[in-house]
Design brief:
The complex is a heterodimer. Chain A is an alpha/beta fold. Chain A has a single domain (about 20-170), classed as 3-Layer(aba) Sandwich (Rossmann fold). Chain A contains 6 helices and 10 strands, in the order ααββαβββαβββαβαβ. Chain A has helices spanning about 1-15, 25-40, 60-70, 105-110, 150-155, 160-165, and strands at about 40, 50-55, 70-75, 75-85, 95, 120, 135-140, 140-145, 155-160, 165-170. In chain A, α2 packs across α3 (about 60-70). The longest helix of chain A has 16 residues, at about 1-15. Chain A is globular. Chain B is mostly beta strands. Chain B has 2 domains: about 5-55, no CATH class; about 60-765, Maltoporin, Chain A, CATH 2.40.170.20. Chain B is about 10% helix and about 55% strand. Chain B has a 22-stranded antiparallel β-barrel. The two termini of chain B are about 40 Å apart. Classes of the chains: A alpha/beta, B mainly beta. Chains A and B meet through α1, α2, α3, β8 and β10 of A and α2, α3, α4 and α5 of B.
């Protein structure tokens, strides 16, 4: 039995050396950057900083800040802002609602509806509930849903190529 | 050190390649997980979106997301509102399609061995009896069918699928292909107010896939194993346009038993089928049964889905199934096993529009629970209609927080008719040889109201009240459920529930009328009672869910239940008329009560990115009061005359009863699951299930009187495993085994000795 335990511990040790960090937040952040290539924001939002807002704390902040140091959206520098509450939500291009805050979607929509904000959620079923894009896990990998009518309501023009990359919700 | 050299080289190579990333194409399918993960971040930033998505697909789901899935899945059953399992205010477990694939489970019932708080026992190859938190085989010492689970509400896509003979579930008759399952939601605890009758020990809802992507999606799985086991299932889904989709699915499952003899109560040994004799000396079978048969099941289904707008959606599903299994279900006085046969078809229409949700379904078919047996005839034509309408009235604008009120209406009608089949059998005098001997109906009309209120975002309160008016018994039953859940923060949730639930009304209990000649001058009758009180349970439960670290989640629940109004098939009338003895047994309510006290802990941990471990267990005690000591308490033999007399249940004195524990519910049961992905293409999954010592008791006739017989099972471990190798993005080949330690013991006394089942298979998905 002791031998078995020592083999198991050894196995754990070996595996921890090759431990590979979780990829999903990274992919979500990279997906988010890629969305910007297929979406045209209203004219009044095409200058100045490109603001990605996050409602509350999320590991996405760290990932997005890495992208912000390396990339721009068109000519707009990327700026990542954390809004601690719904009342704090200021002007932004993308608003990411982390999974734990999903129930705030309706209130968020009431606040930024029609203002050219891409609302991104991260909870099964929320694409249908009216976010613009919703991260989902499909067939065991990171994927996304896109809600056509919400995108139109938010005055966002979407290149049809994006629809073929995700799952379209009416 | 050597292993770092290729990594270093690879790093240098990928750094070089990143300079020309724009032109680069990726062949993720043929790259190892390590190679893919070595791709630099800068390179990922430059990748076309299509390539990035392929990369995400090739890497697959990371273990932390798996862990998240282990506790934090979307669930719609939990409080009849979509939410994550973490937020669920009830004791909830969700088995996802990913888990089904990883574990290699061959039946739904095996999957329940991965669910905390569930007791799963295999009867014969692929046939199981399952219970949520026990209360099984009550009252002790009764007939076989009292050991079956008759107090769980089992549904497929919200459509009731338990049978109306006794409330048990004929699992092999469920028309669902495993590859078509999206997820299975299990709720532990009395929940009639939210879901309807029979949600006493809990609810199981099997949810199938809906087409969500344009283009054909095919999922399937084919495997073969020992004991002539052949299992296959497939589904094809296609969303033809933005608002219209369809699916077709089908499955087959053929298996032989692990042995071809049967336990005979009379002799206490395993004997060939043809020689099986009842405790009264009567031959069991009318014609030779297929002794080797364990299961033979097919099903085929089709569905149409239409969603013209965000506010309106509807679906129409239909299907057909044919199945036979040899397992323990209904008493036959000779052996636990019988062949049960089902041929049924169903249609199920669901619509949702502007807050209204409607579901109407109809099932029709034939079942035979005593195939090839001389008596009684338990073969009938049946149909079942259910209609449900609910409306969500959202009152968030009142300024008092989030408030949803959901009134609901439900109608159920079950008709069972065995006339055609009873008439085919020779009659002896005027005796009725069927279980029902005619057409019988059970009708329930129900109204419900649910209030779901969040005064502040951290606190959720649910109050549900339901009234069910039954035709038999002619009475209204009220059930209720009060639930509170408090999110201390996004990582800790406390919850509490108080509820009352009742069993449904069933054909056997209400209408049984079988007159059984046991000898030339001895008739035993089994008679139902249309006025039986329905079993009722009160539950108090508290729970805690916590994400303790990024890699450790726990889910704890403690419960106390009190169950009353059990019924039993006990002697009531014993008379000797013209030299013939009439020994009449009636379904009767008994004074026995059960009190359960228990706790379940579920821990999911992810020590490494590619390793997830889930461990769970339930400690519980079930105290019984006023339990009949032994069936023999009813009978007294006059040693001078040799005559036997019987005292009815209501006239037995206190000395015939005792208090004790339900020894058939193990004091501890639980399991563990480990999933390990050493390299991208390999997945290893092992699951273990354990139960403590159990003692089963049942009715026995030993000339000249009736008594209780008992048998114990030692603690047991069942180990299942699957090793899968991905041959492409679309297919994996695998080896899997159920009970690979091959314990070769019955999991219910007198049932088959369960051997290992070893399978080889391929699953595909494109």
């Amino acid at each position: 039995m002791k031998k078995l335990i020592s083999y198991f511990l050894l196995l754990l040790l070996v595996m921890s050396i090759t431990d590979l960090k979780a990829q999903n937040e990274k992919f979500k952040a990279l997906f988010m950057y890629n969305f910007t290539k297929y979406i045209e924001w209203p004219g009044d939002k095409q200058s100045g900083d490109f603001v990605i807002g996050i409602l509350g704390n999320s590991p996405m902040k760290k990932e997005l800040e890495v992208i912000a140091t390396k990339k721009k959206v068109g000519s707009q520098p990327i700026k990542v802002k954390v809004f601690n509450s719904i009342n704090d939500i200021g002007s932004c291009h993308i608003l990411f609602i982390p999974s734990g805050k999903s129930s705030s979607l309706d209130e968020v929509k009431a606040r930024v509806g029609g203002k050219g904000v891409l609302i991104i959620t991260d909870r099964p079923g929320f694409g249908r509930k009216g976010s613009g894009i919703n991260y989902v896990l499909k067939g065991g990998h990171q994927d996304f849903e896109i809600n056509k009518s919400t995108m139109a309501e938010q005055r966002l023009k979407v290149n049809s190529a994006l629809y073929s990359l995700g799952t379209v919700i009416n | 050190m050597k292993k770092y050299i290729p990594l270093l080289l690879f790093f240098l190579l990928s750094a070089n390649l990143s300079l020309v990333a724009q032109e680069k194409t990726y062949d993720f399918e043929n790259m190892s997980r390590k190679e893919i993960l070595a791709i630099s971040y800068d390179e990922m930033l430059e990748m076309p979106f299509e390539a990035l998505k392929e990369m995400a697909e090739a890497i697959g789901i990371s273990a932390d997301e798996l862990l998240n899935l282990a506790l934090n899945r979307e669930v719609s059953s939990a409080s009849k509102k979509g939410e994550s399992v973490f937020e669920s205010p009830l004791s909830t477990t969700v088995i996802t399609k990913e888990e089904i694939k990883l574990t290699g489970a061959t039946t739904y019932e095996e999957l329940f061995r991965l669910v905390p708080g569930m007791i799963v026992r295999q009867e014969s190859n692929g046939n199981y009896d399952i219970h949520i938190r026990g209360n099984d085989n009550l009252p002790p010492g009764n007939f076989s069918h009292f050991s079956e689970n008759m107090m769980t509400l089992v549904m497929v896509d919200g459509r009731i699928v338990y049978n109306y003979i006794n409330g048990g579930t004929i699992w092999e008759s469920l028309p669902v292909a495993m590859s078509d399952i999206e997820r299975i939601e299990i709720i532990r605890g009395a929940s009639s107010a939210l879901y309807g009758p029979n949600a006493v020990s809990g609810v199981i809802n099997i949810i199938t896939r809906t087409p969500d992507k344009e283009g054909a999606q095919v999922h399937g799985d084919v495997k073969v194993g020992n004991n002539d086991t052949y299992i296959g299932n497939f589904s094809l889904l296609n969303k033809l346009s933005e608002d219209f989709g369809f699916k077709v699915s089908g499955a087959y499952d053929f298996r032989d038993r692990f042995q071809d003899d049967f336990y005979e109560y009379a002799s206490g040994t395993y004997v060939p089928a043809d020689s099986l004799t009842s405790m009264f000396g009567n031959q069991l079978h009318a014609s030779s049964p297929d002794a080797e048969l364990a299961k033979k099941a097919f099903n085929a289904n089709a569905g149409l889905f239409y969603e013209p707008s965000n506010d309106v959606s509807m679906s129409l599903n239909g299907g057909w199934q044919s199945s036979e299994s040899q397992s323990m279900f209904f008493e036959n006085l000779a052996t636990p096993f019988g062949i049960r046969e089902s041929e049924t078809g169903y249609v199920d229409y669901k619509a949702s529009a502007y807050g209204f949700q409607a579901q109407v379904n109809y099932l029709t078919g034939r079942q035979n629970l005593h195939k090839k047996m001389i008596k009684p005839v338990i073969e009938y034509d049946m149909n079942f209609l259910s209609a449900n309408l609910e409306y969500d009235l959202v009152l968030n604008d009142l300024g008092i927080g989030e408030l949803t009120v959901r009134p609901g209406f439900n109608y159920q009608l079950a008709n069972y008719d065995d006339k055609t089949y009873v008439e085919k059998v020779d009659t002896v005098g005027d005796l009725d040889r069927g279980l029902l001997n005619g057409e019988k109906s059970l009708e329930t009309i129900s109204g419900s109201m649910r209030i779901d209120y969040k005064p502040i975002s951290e606190l959720r309160l649910i109050a549900a009240l339901r009234a069910d008016k039954y035709n038999v018994p002619d009475d209204i039953y009220m059930s209720w459920q009060f639930v509170g859940a408090y999110n201390i923060n996004s990582k800790h949730l406390l919850r509490a529930t108080y509820s009352r639930a009742n069993r449904g009304s069933f054909m056997g209990n209400a209408y049984a009328n079988f007159q059984n000649p046991l000898g030339a001058n001895y008739y035993q009758f089994y008679v139902g009672d249309e006025n039986l009180n329905l079993l009722t349970q009160d539950l108090i439960e508290i729970g805690y869910r916590g994400i303790l670290t990024d890699y450790l989640q726990v889910d704890f629940e403690a419960f106390r239940t009190k169950t009353t109004d059990f019924d039993a098939l006990f002697p009531k009338v014993y008379e000797i008329d013209g030299g013939i003895t009439y020994d009449q047994w009636f379904y009767q309510n008994i004074d026995m009560e059960s009190e359960q006290l228990g706790a379940t802990l579920n821990v999911a941990v992810q020590p490494l990115d590619n390793l997830i471990i889930k461990v769970f267990g339930t400690y519980q005690n079930t105290k019984l009061t006023n339990v009949l000591k032994d069936i023999s308490e009813f009978y007294t033999i006059n040693f001078i005359t040799g005559q036997q007399s019987m005292t009815p249940y209501s006239e037995l004195d206190e000395s015939s009863f005792e208090d004790g524990n339900n020894d058939w519910t193990p004091g501890f049961y639980g399991g563990a699951m480990i999933n390990y992905t050493p390299v991208q293409k390999f997945n290893i999954n092992a699951s273990l299930y354990y139960y403590d010592k159990q003692t089963y008791s049942r009715y026995y006739f030993a000339y000249p009187t009736h008594k209780t017989m008992e048998a114990s099972l030692d603690p047991n471990v069942i180990l299942n495993a699957k090793v899968a190798y991905r041959i492409s993005n679309n297919a994996s080949v695998y080896l899997s085994g159920q009970n690979i330690l091959d314990h070769n013991k019955p999991e219910i006394p007198y049932n088959d000795k369960v051997s290992g089942l070893y399978l080889i298979g391929i699953d595909f998905s494109f």
